[in-house]
């Protein structure tokens, strides 16, 4: 009996030992997997904390915008086929247009003097980014022209449909006429798509399945008709990008850019107006179009009143503004006033280009609903242009943001480096530095832009609170 017990005990010990040997590797594998999961989770947390945005606190603005946040989905390339129909001698001819890859995938709409050229300079060094073919087409402006063509024709369809409805035209005739006009509209859109692709090297696009195609034209932001036209013209849904700079600095930078050189001034025997003069002229125009009331104080009077006091005249210390807006001026009302001016008039203004909220309103209404719009701040480009560009390119669907040549990249960055705001003392004329922005003009413009900057919070969200002040 004693021997049997010893044998039984020995067998139990052996069994436990064998089980331990079998279980130990399994426990090790489970432990390793848990460790890897913990590491992976930690990496995700680190990437999130490194991001410019805290994903846990992001909410949509009153108008539905939320800044797109990584991880971004990869680009899903799509082909597009459409028909161009022409009528010759009562005969109908049809041309089938096939785009193996519908382009572009990213459109940078502005704002002017807000590092858009720097963005493209950095993007151009990515081996999988394709931009317009030549220097002359660096800013294609294609959609400005094409958008007007499409918009006018679409208005014609609406007008004809309304006229038929108001007349005694039969329902069948009205329906047939509307169908013919819509067919002609689709044909025009097809022709425009065909023309748009000519701005890009489509052979490279088709051969590089990892590439994305982008273009930038900073004046697009001024055209409030373009968002709807882009939706019609580009059914493959390209992403839209905007970069906003402090509007006072932006206007001043535009002024500096437009200054002719001393030699050109002498040859033309002309003088260039001071920036303060340009500001005052535009403020008077804003009164004429109803954006401001007559009670608005001029820049000269504002400067005189401020210089006459010894009190603190910084922006935060001023309790009243020289600008009087119409009662109940809203974001929508200001957008309508600017819309009535037309894109060409807005393009010639120094101050309108910085009224971002009313300019962006139609873009937000069209593209924010499905997160196709990203709005960046200029100082992000200033601080970290390479990573900001890469984030925007990934937003457009680019997976591989590697560069062709590090040396060439650095040369490109040096050549296209963002110009820091400063005095334009290299444009001294007639004993005066006409490029210098005086502190009183800056303060005046800060007060002018304040309500429009606050509209940005309503339009784009709380992260724009206090921006531009």
Summarize the structure.
The protein is built from 16 helices and nine strands.
Please, could you describe this protein's structure?
30% of the residues are buried. It is built from 16 helices and nine strands. By secondary structure, it is an alpha/beta fold. 52% of the residues lie in helices and 9% in strands. The protein has helices spanning 2-50, 116-124, 142-166, 171-197, 202-207, 226-233, 247-258, 262-268, 275-288, 299-307, 331-341, 343-347, 356-367, 378-395, 406-415, 439-460; strands at residues 80-88, 91-99, 106-108, 129-130, 212-216, 239-244, 373-377, 428-429, 432-433.
List key phrases describing it.
469 residues; alpha/beta; five-stranded parallel sheet; two-stranded antiparallel sheet; 16 helices; globular
| Main sheet strand line-up | 4-5-3-6-7
* Order of helix and strand elements from N to C terminus: HEEEHEHHHEHEHHHHHHHEHHEEH
How would you name the oligomeric state of the polypeptide chains in this document? single chain
Instruction: Output mean pLDDT.
Output: 82
Report the radius of gyration as a whole number of Å. 30 Å
The number of helical runs is 16
Characterize the overall form.
globular
What is the helical fraction, as a range of percent? 40-55%
- Based on secondary structure, the structural category is alpha/beta
Strand content: 5-15%
Instruction: Work out the number of β strands.
Output: 9
Largest sheet: 5 strands, parallel
Low-confidence stretches: 23-56, 409-416, 419-433
* Terminus-to-terminus distance: 96 Å
């Amino acid at each position: 009996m004693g021997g049997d017990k010893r044998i039984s005990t020995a067998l139990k010990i052996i069994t436990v030992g064998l089980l331990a040997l079998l279980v130990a590797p399994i426990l090790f594998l489970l432990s390793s997997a848990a460790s890897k999961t913990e590491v992976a989770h930690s990496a995700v947390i680190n990437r999130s904390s490194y991001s410019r945005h805290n994903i846990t606190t992001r909410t949509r603005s009153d108008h539905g915008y939320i800044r797109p946040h990584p991880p971004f989905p990869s680009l899903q390339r799509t082909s597009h086929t459409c028909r161009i129909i022409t009528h010759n001698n009562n005969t109908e001819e049809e041309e089938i247009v096939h785009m193996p890859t519908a382009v572009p995938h990213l459109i940078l709409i502005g704002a002017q003097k807000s590092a858009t050229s720097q963005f493209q300079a950095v993007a151009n060094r990515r081996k999988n980014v394709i931009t317009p073919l030549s220097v002359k087409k660096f800013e294609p402006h294609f959609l400005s022209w094409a958008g007007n063509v499409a918009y006018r024709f679409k208005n014609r369809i609406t007008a004809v449909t309304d006229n038929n409805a108001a007349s005694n035209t039969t329902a069948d005739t009205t329906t047939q006429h509307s169908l013919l006009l819509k067919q002609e509209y689709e044909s025009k859109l097809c022709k425009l798509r065909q023309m748009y692709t000519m701005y890009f090297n489509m052979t490279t696009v088709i051969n590089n399945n990892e590439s994305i195609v982008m273009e930038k034209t900073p004046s697009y932001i001024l055209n409030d008709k373009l968002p709807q036209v882009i939706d019609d013209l580009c059914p493959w849904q390209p992403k839209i990008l905007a970069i906003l700079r402090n509007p006072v600095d932006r206007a001043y930078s535009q002024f500096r850019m437009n200054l002719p050189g001393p030699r050109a001034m002498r040859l033309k025997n002309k003088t260039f107006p001071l920036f303060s003069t340009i500001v005052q002229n535009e403020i008077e125009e804003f009164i004429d179009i109803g954006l401001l009331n007559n009670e608005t104080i001029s820049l000269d009077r504002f400067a005189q009143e401020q210089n006459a006091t010894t009190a603190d005249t910084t922006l935060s210390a001023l309790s009243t503004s020289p600008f009087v807006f119409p009662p109940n001026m809203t974001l929508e009302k200001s957008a309508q006033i600017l819309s009535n001016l037309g894109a060409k008039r807005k393009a010639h203004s120094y101050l309108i280009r910085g009224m971002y909220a009313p300019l962006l309103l139609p873009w937000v209404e069209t593209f924010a609903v499905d997160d196709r719009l990203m709005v960046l701040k200029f100082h992000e480009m200033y601080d970290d242009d390479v990573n900001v560009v890469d984030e925007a390119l990934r937003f457009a669907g680019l997976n591989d943001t590697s560069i062709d040549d590090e040396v060439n990249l650095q040369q490109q960055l040096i050549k296209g480096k963002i110009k820091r705001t400063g005095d334009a003392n290299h444009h001294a004329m007639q004993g005066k530095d006409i490029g210098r922005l005086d502190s009183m003009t800056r303060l005046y413009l800060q007060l002018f832009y304040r309500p429009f900057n606050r509209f940005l919070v309503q339009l784009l969200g709380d992260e724009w609170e206090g921006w531009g002040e």
